[in-house]
Specification:
This protein is an all-alpha fold and 119 residues long. It folds into two domains: 43 residues, no CATH class; 66 residues, lambda repressor-like DNA-binding domains (434 Repressor (Amino-terminal Domain), Orthogonal Bundle). The chain contains seven helices and no strands. Helix 4 packs across helix 5.
């Protein structure tokens, strides 16, 4: 069989570096397990998770560092108070976008003021 040739703006070395820590077999197995759970009614929806680049967020810690109530924090993030409560007690996890926003806010508290002004 001939080698498949793909045009890309990236060099082969850049592509290899990007996928260096990716375990494709683990990803395929995880996807198959998710599909089987969905088929058997044990899961309602598939979730795509990018393990790299998502910061670990302590929702309670970020909110307390900002000296905000759950209501104010929810308003700034554009989510419901119930969503913040669920994150804080571990019933659910923030979306990747919410995690990134909370990370940015935790690094630069002035972003809260900018978000409040934009609404």
């Amino acid at each position: 069989m001939d080698k498949i040739k793909v045009k890309s703006k990236y060099t082969e070395a850049e592509i290899e570096k990007n996928f260096k820590d990716v375990d494709f077999f683990d990803g395929v197995m995880s996807g198959l397990e998710d599909a089987l759970a969905y088929k058997n009614g044990l899961s309602k929806a598939a979730t795509i998770v990018r393990k790299r680049s998502l910061p670990v967020i302590d929702v309670v810690g970020v909110r307390r560092d900002l000296n905000m109530t759950q209501r104010d924090f929810a308003w700034v993030l554009g989510v419901s108070v119930r969503t913040v409560e669920s994150w804080e007690i571990g019933r659910s996890v923030p979306s990747p976008t919410a995690k990134k926003l909370m990370f940015l806010i935790s690094q630069d508290h002035s972003l809260v003021e900018k978000l409040q002004q934009s609404a």
